[in-house]
Amino acid sequence: MGQLFNFRLLCGIVLLAAFPTAGHAKAPMDSLKISVDCCRFRGDEKTVFVEIYYSIPESGLIYRPDSAGFKAEADVMILVTQKDSIVHNDRWLVPHLISDTASLITGMNLVGIANVSLPEGDFLLKVIARDRNRSGRKDSVTRALPVRVVRPEKAALSDLEFASVIRKGKKGSMFYKNTMEVIPNVDGVFKEDQTCYFYAEAYNLAFGEGHGDYFVKTSVFDAVGKEVISREKPKKPVGESSVIVDNIGVDNLRMGVYTLVISLLDSTRATLVATGKKFYVYNPKLGIDSTLLTASTTIVSGEYASMEEPELDREFKWAKYEANDAEKSQYELLKGVDAKRKFISDFWRHRPLGLKEEYLSRIAHVNANFQALGREGYRTDRGRVYIVYGPPDDYERHPNEAESRPYEIWSYNSIQGGVVFVFAQRQSGGEYELVHSSHRNELHDENWQRYVMTQ
User: Fold this and answer.
1) Which of 122-126, 398-402, 441-445 is predicted least confidently?
2) Would you tell me how many other CB atoms lie within 10 Å of the CB of residue 129?
């Protein structure tokens, strides 16, 4: 599409941790999941330069024997749309070659970057990842992407980019910019032994004579808006733009969601412009700040503002298959309706666009169709499978056969090359229990027929 939509792609990847080698291949420990973040930087007078960051768990890919070891490939696609029209799309392969997969460790990510220049407007970004070695294994993230051109008449800041590492760079690195190598932390999650690095760009710093130095203020706010870190650094305006690179330690921050805010202040300490971004600290040693467990906040989406505690508890119970262990532990410690309203509002807000609606529609379906022996449908085996994997491509039902107890076989054609789930009513009048699946992360029992045969 010419100069207007100049898409510049860096197809490389970086592995953020090393692992030992061993002697054989094995199935991945992680599901195929892609995480996405993006930052907007000044382009020219008509465009904005957008960096799109993505990460894929190394152990979430299928590896095949290769002449040099074992090879995995992620098939990545980026779509940028506006009002249902495709502005730009591109697709490429991200290869990853290792000597062996026996010691793949959860938490090691392949991180990459792509760039696109866009004019002012409201766009939708979708990033899709597929496993080339196993058809049907895929994941995607969709997010709104508003673009506003930087005006020359006032000071401006880019988005904040969180980074795992910022160091002196070498040209040729996929993450090289402004003499540095900035390796993105795509999830914005920092453990207690990590340092939270961040990068931003400031523009239009020619404030005129008599203004002298300006100041960069770094603030960190907890989940209820309390400022827990605040510091200022003077900077001399040596040009009309500048790079802001800094870091904060998170070892003294309790577990939870925080917001980092960078502000430009003039010589009188008046705020010229500010930008902020949420990040998450995982620090089980310190736990959660007890003051957050009962604190009231009004930063809650409208649908939760009127919910009472039993309704909130019920919805979070429904979300048990989507929530991670840290979120479940954090919710258990919450006290009071306001804290729970804020937590669940943030819980869904941090998920991909449309996930909540799809998830809750599955909950409604299973509660209506799979209730058994007084148990709500979402708590049954069939309910869990339907919620996690969606409706099957094919149902095979055997409700009334002379020589067998009732059982069902659900088939999913697009998962791991095709998988089945077998549910059997092992006790007369009981609920359908999962007795076998060919899915690698589920119960596997090739002799499942013994549970259904009556003879």
Assistant:
1) 398-402
2) 24
CB hemisphere CA count around 28 (13 angstroms): 25
Q: Which residue has the tokens 């199935």?
A: 27
Residue 290 corresponds to which amino acid?
S
For 230-270, how does the pLDDT look when each residue is reduced to its tens digit (9 = 90+)? 999 998 877 889 999 999 999 999 888 788 999 999 888 88
Give every CB contact of residue 193 below 8 A, 6+ residues apart in sequence.
251
372, two tokens: 């058994």
Q: Which distant-in-sequence residues (6+ apart) come within 8 Å of 290 by Cβ?
A: none
Do 357 and 148 contact (CB within 8 A), yes or no? no
Fold for 154-285, please state it. Immunoglobulin-like (2.60.40)
Instruction: Tell me the two tokens of residue 121.
Output: 């407007």
Q: Which residues contact 2 (CB under 8 A, 6 or more apart)?
A: none
- Find the helix or strand (DSSP H, E) in which 304 lies: helix 302-305
Q: Which of 85, 98, 84, 80 is nearest to 9 (CA)?
A: 80
The CATH H-level superfamily of 1-149 is Immunoglobulins (2.60.40.10)
**DSSP-assigned letters across all residues of 330-390:** HHHH--SHHHHHHHHHHHHHTSPTTHHHHHHHHHHHHHHH--BTTB-GGGSHHHHHHHHH-
Q: Would 1-149 and 154-285 be classified into the same CATH topology?
A: yes
In this structure, what token pair is assigned to residue 1? Answer: 């599409």
Measured distance CA(90)–CA(113) in Å, rounded = 13
Domain ranges of the chain: 1-149, 154-285, 293-353, 375-451
**pTM > 0.90: yes or no:** no
